[in-house]
Design a protein that fits this description.
This protein has 2 helices and 9 strands; from the N terminus they run E-E-E-E-E-E-E-E-H-E-H. By secondary structure, the protein is of the alpha+beta class. The protein has a 5-stranded mixed β-barrel with strand order 1-4-5-8-6. Strands 2-3 form a two-stranded antiparallel ribbon. A hairpin with a 4-residue loop joins strand 2 and strand 3. The protein is globular and about 40 Å long. The chain starts with 15 loop residues before the first strand and ends with a helix.
Length: about 190
């Protein structure tokens, strides 16, 4: 099974599956290549810039930008590219991203690890220090600016809104798969 085919949510625990693509503290930005099932080095961040926490995606989802939904996982120690981490969504940093005159929603979900041995310290963004949230937003603003994009934070929402947006993205991905399957069936006839 390829990683992008992993279920978005564990039906038994109700937790979300995040596939880490870039570990905390890394200057290297990795990206999962769905066609090959391999990790590719996407870019190297400038000196002094690194990912503040593990960054990954929810498999079996699709956002407005065409990619799986992005998640920042608040872990003390970095995981590794390809690691599947069970998480609880604690909120969403709603944002727009503009590149070459085209603006799309490109929200960033925030999550905490949850296992039977690692209960979350908090369940909402309000559990985080406001300065930490401001620094995370600043990271995404500057990271996108280096790439020639504008990242504009629109607001911070709690876990209920994060859940709604995530479930809508799962439906979008499922609908796209059905359309692709129908197209392939017609072309074979």
């Amino acid at each position: 099974m390829l990683l992008h085919q992993v279920a978005a949510k564990n039906p038994e625990s109700g937790l979300w599956n995040v596939i880490i693509d870039t570990p905390k503290g890394s200057r290297n930005k990795y990206k999962y290549d769905e066609a090959d099932g391999l990790w590719r080095l996407s870019k190297v961040l400038p000196l002094g810039a690194s990912f503040p926490f593990d960054f990954g995606f929810i498999p079996s989802t699709r956002g407005e930008d065409g990619d799986p939904l992005d998640v920042l996982v608040l872990l003390d120690e970095p995981a590794f590219p390809g690691c599947i981490v069970p998480v609880r969504l604690i909120g969403i940093l709603e944002a727009e991203q503009t590149q070459k005159g085209k603006t799309v929603r490109n929200d960033r979900f925030v999550a905490v690890i949850e296992t039977p041995y690692n209960p979350p310290a908090f369940h909402t963004l309000e559990g985080m220090h406001p300065q930490s949230l401001a620094e995370i937003e600043h990271f995404f603003i500057s990271y996108n600016q280096m790439e020639g994009r504008q990242f504009k934070p629109l607001g911070r929402q709690g876990p209920e809104r994060a859940q709604q947006v995530m479930e809508a993205a799962m439906r979008t991905r499922a609908s796209a798969r059905r359309s692709t399957s129908k197209s392939r069936s017609r072309s074979k006839k």
